[in-house]
């Protein structure tokens, strides 16, 4: 099968491209630059064909989907910067990819969404992802939607962040109440579901939660990371009101002075407070995944 992948240069995208190639698929990827190190890696290591374009610019997508059988749409952001807002990247970007697929005669469309997505969500991130889902559902394409919880694995920007922080800090921060829940899932299991869905008729028209077996709060996640790497670190609770003020300052400083997205946003604080629990049983049954417990999973690479 000829598969087109957006967001392929990211942490999850690279794993999906690798598994696509291992399964015998041909891969074409959407990249902003043909000469970036991540683009060259996809081409040289996995034999991916590169198409230069941007999900926000529909003109750049023309010609990119010729001869494609299926599209995996992964592009997403967790922090906004400039024109890259949640509404543009998640909603408009998905609308552009759906239209490009329809114009090119691509019938199979697989979307990366997120656990907790719903129309009444407080977080704009979740609302924009819900709008993207609605676009895909009404497209007439043979779609599958996946909603993963936080994804971890070698090279992630979640577990590894706190592991690095623990090298120099005697304490790790817990923003807000610390009562929100996550169900971390291994990147290899997420990729296996995306790749497996391409040849699975039962997956067409379905939406699947992707999550691990453990429902964890941030304090427990931080404690587990420290135990696995053999470091004893305390935790400091930062009240939600104070955290909002600190994050608001970061959202001003990073774009204005560093030309980078803030490492933490008020939208993320909202999501960290939510008790989101998914049901991975349908995905496990159909795609044959067996996500390990969080402690065992991170011990494989930390």
Account of the 3D structure:
The strands form four sheets. This protein has a seven-stranded parallel sheet with strand order 3-2-1-4-5-6-11, sandwiched between helices. The protein has a two-stranded parallel sheet with strand order 7-10. A two-stranded parallel ribbon has the order 8-13. The relative contact order is 0.13. The protein is an alpha/beta fold and 302 residues long. The two termini are 35 Å apart. α1 crosses α6 (187-197), α3 (86-104) packs parallel to α4 and α5 crosses α7. The protein is globular and about 55 Å long. α2 (37-46) links the parallel β2 and β3. The protein has a domain at 2-149 and 185-210 and 277-290: NAD(P)-binding Rossmann-like Domain (Rossmann fold), CATH 3.40.50. The longest helix has 19 residues, at 86-104. The chain has eleven helices and 13 strands. The mean pLDDT is 96. The chain has helices at residues 11-22, 37-46, 86-104, 124-137, 159-168, 187-197, 218-229, 240-258, 266-272, 281-287, 294-299, and strands spanning 2-6, 26-31, 49-52, 70-73, 108-112, 142-148, 151-152, 171-175, 181-182, 185-186, 206-210, 216-217, 234-238. It is 42% helix and 18% strand.
Task: Give the arrangement of secondary structure elements.
Blueprint: E1 2-6, H1 11-22, E2 26-31, H2 37-46, E3 49-52, E4 70-73, H3 86-104, E5 108-112, H4 124-137, E6 142-148, E7 151-152, H5 159-168, E8 171-175, E9 181-182, E10 185-186, H6 187-197, E11 206-210, E12 216-217, H7 218-229, E13 234-238, H8 240-258, H9 266-272, H10 281-287, H11 294-299
Parallel strand pairs: 1-2, 1-4, 2-3, 4-5, 5-6, 6-11, 7-10, 8-13
Antiparallel strand pairs: 9-12
């Amino acid at each position: 099968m000829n598969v087109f992948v957006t967001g392929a240069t990211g942490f999850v995208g690279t794993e999906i491209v690798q598994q696509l190639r291992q399964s015998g698929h041909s891969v074409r990827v959407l990249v902003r630059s043909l000469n970036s190190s991540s683009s060259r890696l996809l081409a040289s290591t996995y034999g991916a064909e590169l198409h230069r374009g941007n999900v926000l610019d529909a003109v750049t997508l023309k010609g990119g989907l010729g001869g494609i059988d299926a599209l995996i749409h992964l592009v997403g952001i967790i922090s906004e910067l400039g024109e890259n807002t949640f509404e543009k990247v998640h909603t408009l970007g998905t609308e552009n990819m759906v239209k490009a697929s329809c114009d090119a005669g691509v019938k199979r469309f697989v979307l990366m969404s997120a656990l907790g997505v719903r129309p009444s969500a407080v977080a704009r991130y979740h609302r924009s992802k819900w709008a993207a889902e609605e676009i895909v559902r009404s497209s007439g394409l043979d779609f599958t939607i996946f909603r993963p919880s936080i994804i971890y694995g070698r090279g992630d920007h979640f577990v590894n962040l706190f592991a690095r922080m623990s090298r120099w800090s005697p304490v790790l921060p817990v923003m807000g109440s610390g009562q929100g829940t996550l169900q971390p899932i291994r990147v290899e299991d997420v990729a296996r579901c995306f790749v497996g869905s391409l040849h699975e008729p039962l997956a067409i028209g379905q939406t699947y939660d992707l999550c691990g077996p453990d429902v964890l709060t941030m304090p427990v996640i931080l404690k587990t990371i420290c135990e696995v790497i053999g470091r004893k670190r305390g935790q400091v609770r930062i009240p939600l009101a104070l955290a909002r003020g600190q994050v608001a300052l970061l959202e001003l400083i990073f774009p204005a002075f560093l030309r980078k997205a803030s490492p933490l946003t008020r939208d993320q604080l909202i999501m960290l407070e939510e008790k989101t629990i998914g049901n991975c049983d349908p995905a496990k049954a159909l795609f044959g995944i067996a996500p390990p417990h969080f402690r065992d999973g991170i011990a494989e690479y930390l």
